Amino acid sequence: MASVACIDTPVDTQETTRESVVDWSSPEFGAIYEQHSKPIFYLALRMLSEPAKAEDATHDIFLKAFRNMRQFRGESALRTWLYRIAINHCRNVLQTWHHRTMVTNVDDSVWEHSAAKSETPLRALETAELGERIQKTLDQLSEEYRLLLLLVADQELSYEEIGELTSQSADAVRGKLHRARKLFAVIFKQTE
Amino acid sequence: MSSSSRKFQQRTQQESAQEQQTTSEQQHTAREFGSVEEMLQHDSTHVVVPPHVAARIRESVAREPRPARGWWQRLFGR
After folding, report:
1. Considering the domain A15-99, what is its CATH architecture?
2. Residue A70 touches chain B, beta carbons under 8 Å
3. Which residues, in sequence order, are CB contacts of A174 under 8 Å at separation 6+?
4. pLDDT digits (tens, 9 = 90+) for A41-78
5. Residues of chain A with C-beta less than 8 angstroms from the C-beta of B37
6. Do the first three CATH levels of A15-99 and A104-190 match, i.e. the same topology?
7. Which of A23, A144, A161, A183 is deepest in the core (most CB within 10 A)?
8. pLDDT tier at A163 (50, 70, 90 boundaries)?
């Protein structure tokens, strides 16, 4: 993968959380991009459902990060700060997306009686179809559930950080995730 | 054994071998995930950020004005 700037040594996440360490000079920014672009791109891809939109979003998110570097005070991890910019950006894109009214999210109640189906393991063929099925499933979830599942899949984020990013308590995150997982499993099986 | 029946037997054996191979390939490629997170993590490892995104960002960042130095930085030459 091409990098923004040539730098050999990877940036340690803990080291980059303090403003004094991150000077945001170009090579430093390149290293930050190298380390965080993949999870940010993945979030944008699965939130916006289209690779081209995800590419544009990733560009805009990192440019915003570059422009607002002085606002990063190291109170949270750099990854969390980038996610915050990414979430706001994706929400803006989704709000201005003309076809958003055509997408109907599945309501929880629809799946109440299908709960048993969600308890069996998720099985899929290991092909590109898996990505398509995941996307189809996420597209049917509410924006909140989709976001929570994508954030919790990033092992670098704690429930507290996810709560911070989605403006709710860690307990609320746990509760909603429980429902989001069940709903995902039920819908996923229907995409077979 | 006639030539046609030998060919038929050979073809049947080939088809049977192919079927077995296909079944075995499907078994190998089928994957089970214990949780949604595990599935999404697996999915994310197969997603690659296109290299031209990095190039676009590099160009955009290069066009950005350099951040102004604070008065204290100018005064103390830092």
Report:
1. Orthogonal Bundle (1.10)
2. yes
3. A159
4. 999 999 999 999 999 999 999 999 999 887 888 878 99
5. 149, 152-153
6. no
7. A183
8. very high
> Which DSSP category does B30 fall into?
E
Q: Kindly state whether A4 is in contact with chain B, defined as any CB-CB distance less than 8 angstroms.
A: yes
Torsion of CA A45, A55, A24, B75, to 10 degrees: -120
Which one of B30, B36, B41 has the shortest CB-CB distance to A123? B30
Distance from CA of A76 to the nearest CA of B (A): 23
**Predicted confidence (pLDDT) per residue in A85-143, tens digit:** 999 999 999 998 655 555 556 556 555 555 545 556 676 666 678 999 999 999 999 99
A interface mutation test: which of B31, B36, B42 has the most A CBs within 10 A? B36
Number of domains present in the structure of chain B: 1
Angle at B70 between CA B68 and CA B71, to 5 degrees: 125
On whether residue B69 sits in a domain, the answer given is no
A125 and B29 in contact (C-beta within 8 Å)? yes
Block residue for tokens 């109440």: A112
Domain ranges of chain A: 15-99, 104-190
Question: Which residue in A42, A59, A153 is closest to B53 by CB distance?
Answer: A59
- With a CB-CB cutoff of 8 Å, which residues 81-110 of chain A face chain B? none
pTM: 0.72
pLDDT of residue A119: 57
Closest Cα in chain A, distance from residue B3 (Å):
42
Please give the ipTM for the structure prediction.
0.76
Q: A104-190, which class in CATH? A: mainly alpha
Q: Is B77 contained in some domain?
A: no
CA–CA separation, A39 and B48 (whole Å): 10
Distance CA B56, CA B39 (A): 30
Q: B15 is in which domain, residue-wise?
A: 3-62
